[in-house]
Amino acid sequence: MATSFTHHFEPGTNPAAPPILLLHGTGGDELDLLPLGRALSPGSALLSPRGNVNEHGAARYFARVAEGVFDPAEITRRAHELADFLAGSAREYGLDPARLIAVGLSNGANIASAILLLRPIVFAGAVLFRPMVVLDTPADPHSLDGKRVLVVGGARDPIVSVDHPHRVASHLRAGGADIALHMSPAGHGLIHEDIIVAQAWFSGATKLDRIA
Ligand code: MLT
């Protein structure tokens, strides 16, 4: 039986707006990113699961060995577990996986990129705020054809070194994803510019740095 996740679901009010999957950072919960989801795509349905791994009281989507040190087997197992939950939730709430956009922050961005590498069928694209390379493998050719991904790093992020957002982007681009990359003048937390850039991406604008 699929693992269940404590989650919040908010039905959409604008059928033209894509449903959004919200994935919080370490220590967050299912309510944290609701204002972000509403700001990025007003009227979207919001599905927001809480990470089911407990790190000294902080919720995460996968366990880590230490800060910045990851176990690929653990990440793979947790990515499939969350993907199974998403497939079931899409049926339960009537969400179309071909339109679902994941919005992840930090640990949430990392599980989203792992799912893009391992189970790309469960969503259509993603906004990855402050991602790190957690599975250091390029996506299989054509596995991400037709998917749109926005990667937003922080140029002064003390936790994620600046090469990581670029490497995440190129791993996903290897699978054929349409990648936009933006480096905000920010640390690990979100700033106003992150929101503006992601709003523009949601509305289809492409004035962002492209990976060559
Ligand atoms: C975090 O604090 O969540 C890290 O930056 C990313 C991770 O461990 O997945």
Please describe the topology of this protein.
Elements: E1 7-10, E2 20-23, H1 34-40, E3 46-49, E4 53-55, E5 58-60, H2 72-93, E6 101-105, H3 107-118, E7 125-129, E8 148-154, H4 163-173, E9 178-184, H5 192-202, E10 209-210
Parallel strand pairs: 2-3, 2-6, 6-7, 7-8, 8-9
Antiparallel strand pairs: 1-3, 4-5, 9-10
Helix pairs in contact: 2-3
The structure holds D-malate.
Structure description:
It contains five helices and ten strands; from the N terminus they run ββαβββαβαββαβαβ. The chain is of the alpha/beta class. It has a single domain (7-202), classed as Rossmann fold (3-Layer(aba) Sandwich). Strand 2, helix 1 and strand 3 form a beta-alpha-beta unit. Helix 2 crosses helix 3 (107-118). The structure holds D-malate. D-malate is lined by residues 25-26, 64, 106-107, 110, 132, 159.
What is the CATH topology? Rossmann fold
Strand order of the largest sheet: 1-3-2-6-7-8-9-10
Number of helices: 5
The helical percent reads 25-40%
Low-confidence stretches: none
* Beta-strand percent range: 15-25%
CATH architecture: 3-Layer(aba) Sandwich
Total number of beta strands: 10
Task: Briefly summarize what is shown.
The protein is an alpha/beta fold and 212 residues long. It is 30% helix and 21% strand. The strands form 2 sheets. An 8-stranded mixed sheet has the order 1-3-2-6-7-8-9-10, sandwiched between helices.
